[in-house]
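Example 3.2
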Amino acid sequence: MLKPWNYILAGVTFFIFLALLLSFDSECIQQLDNTLAELFGGNVFITAFHYIGDTWFVISIGLLLLIVLWLKERNYHGMIFVLLTIAAGNVLNQLVKKWIERPRPEIVDQLSTFSFPSGHAMLSLLYLFTIAYLVEEWVGNSKKSRIVWVIAIILSFLIGLSRIAESRHFGSDVIAGWSLGYTWFVLCVFWYEQSKRKFNKLINNT
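Structure, written as tokens:
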């Protein structure tokens, strides 16, 4: 179950996303992008993490989660939750990209899609945090669930940085992806917890 600070942090991350949205062409953000590119650009170790943020991998994880939620406990609310975080999150990312139309960094053989916000950064956070949340729901707030959360945060961080290392995204794209991803995740969790509470209340009253 999310704590009050999660909602406060979601408000902060949404503000960060809006700030980057309105200022990614500014000199300050361009300096930030250049600094991050110099810091992480070409890092072979970090680059390898982009594979677990690729679309096919995220879709596979999403399908696996749906199967587990259906077979394990017929958790239909959980299945909708996964669809909201991962599938709807992907749609949201694509809509924002097409709305903003920020070009990617200029490199040879660059991708033809738009750059802001980073899909790898946003979707990796969404699918990894969804896994961590569901694991915590299954095993409780235990040492195991806390370890899963730490792993999810670290992997989300490295997958996002891999897009800078490969020059596929500007650093501000990645930060925006993380920010919008976390905000969307918290909104989805809020829906999930409220829908379960209402359903359980309805069952208990019948």
